[in-house]
Automatic annotation (TrEMBL):
This is phosphoglycerate mutase (2,3-diphosphoglycerate-independent). Signal peptide: none annotated. Belongs to the BPG-independent phosphoglycerate mutase family. Catalyzes the interconversion of 2-phosphoglycerate (2-PGA) and 3-phosphoglycerate (3-PGA). Required for guard cell function (e.g. blue light-, abscisic acid- (ABA), and low CO(2)-regulated stomatal movements) and fertility (e.g. pollen grains production).
């Protein structure tokens, strides 16, 4: 069965030019591409004799494929590619809307508010606080500021009376230093919500590479630093204003590595630790750097660090981040369902495959290009 529910044949026609019985290699070069040949293009400027000889040796066989924008299921042509969308798109044979686009569609249609995930968290709006945790930038790789803005508006219009945003500054998918502008924009949005009677504030923050957004279980201390600030309201730096916090902490660190901070009131009390009865949404659509926090928020038997306090909350991810682990159990938008990948076709047609990939790419690759199928050998 295909994703449309129709019976689809697995049979592949013989390729018009590729000979049968010969070995074929598919090699993915991460970060390699062609663009305007100017002095700022490092691949153009570098000595690349092997690639040059491949290109010049058989120009009739040389093809360029797009790895960004609409060709890989992103919302616009201005969206840069990244490893997750590339791994999902390669070998799918069709264009699937990726997380960023699925969230855009769900927000534009309002369907995000009709889904099970939003209903689940909104049960807390009457008595509890809505916490939004995620990357604050317009990079479009893990999250987008305009999606956060729409979610803030939509949630407050649907009953959220007290909102706390826990920000992670970027400087990796966007320019270093841009964090200040993003925090100013968010602060002005929150001020407008306050004018309309919603108690909305930034509660904590830190740089994405030092606070919360680790990946592949590389360093749980990163997640712990975020947990202490977001859940316990504890951090080495305390400020009464988030713009001031980011400006001050940038004196000794760039956006990616800002140390954790909490926003406190005039009595030095944190304004927004996560408490029993609260709702939490992690608003990144991309999975890899949110899975670890999702585990800490959701798993009863979590043992990667001492959480000290484990509030009884209702938690939803922007998307479900791991389909196999069903993590998190509640989410606002369903992730792309990528089926019938090229790897599956090869197996169904009796073509033996050998796949070799870095273990770090596992969560992304297993959904797309090299979806694990029986009879294919995978080496990590
Ligand atoms: O998470 C990161 O490090 C970047 O935002 C994207 O990196 P990648 O797409 O190359 O994994």
């Amino acid at each position: 069965m295909g994703s449309s529910g129709q019976q689809v044949s697995w049979k592949l026609a013989d390729h018009p030019t590729l000979p049968k019985g010969k070995t074929l290699a598919l090699i993915v070069l991460d970060g390699w591409g062609e663009y305007k040949p100017d002095e700022y293009n490092c691949i153009h400027v570098a000595q690349t004799p092997t690639m040059d000889s491949l290109k010049q040796g058989a120009p009739e066989k040389w093809r360029l494929i797009r790895a960004h924008g609409k060709a890989v299921g992103l919302p616009t042509e201005d969206d840069m590619g990244n490893s997750e969308v590339g791994h999902n798109a390669l070998g799918a044979g069709r264009i699937f809307a990726q997380g960023a686009k699925l969230v855009d569609i769900a927000l534009a249609s309002g369907k995000i508010y009709e889904g099970e995930g939003f209903k689940y968290i909104s049960e807390c709006f009457e008595k509890g606080t809505l916490h939004l945790i995620g990357l604050l930038s317009d990079g479009g790789v893990h999250s987008r500021l305009d999606q956060l803005q729409l979610l803030l508006k939509g949630a407050s219009e649907r009953g959220a009376k007290r909102i706390r945003v826990h920000i992670l500054t970027d400087g990796r998918d966007v320019l270093d230093g841009s964090s200040v502008g993003f925090v100013e924009t968010l602060e002005s949005d929150l001020a407008k919500l306050r004018e309309n009677g919603v108690d909305a504030r930034i509660a904590s923050g830190g740089g994405r590479m030092y606070v919360t957004m680790d990946r592949y279980e590389n360093d749980w201390d990163v997640v712990k630093r975020g947990w202490d600030a977001q859940v316990r309201g504890e951090a080495p730096h305390k400020f009464t204003n988030a713009v001031e916090a980011v400006k001050k902490l940038r004196e000794n660190a760039n956006d990616q590595y800002l140390p954790p901070f909490v926003i406190v009131d005039e009595n030095e009390k944190a304004v927004g630790p996560i408490e029993d009865g609260d709702a939490v949404v992690t608003f990144n659509f991309r999975a890899d750097r949110m899975v670890m926090l999702a585990k800490a928020l959701e798993h009863q038997d979590f043992d990667k660090f001492d959480r000290v306090k484990v509030p009884k909350i209702r938690y939803a991810g922007m998307l479900q981040y791991d389909g196999e682990l069903k993590l998190p159990g509640h989410y606002l938008v369903s992730p792309p369902e990528i089926d019938r990948t090229s790897g599956e076709y090869l197996v169904h047609n009796g073509v033996r495959t050998f796949a070799c990939r870095p273990p770090s790419d596992d969560p992304q690759v297993k959904g797309g290009l090299m979806k694990l199928v029986s009879h294919s050998i995978h080496i990590l």
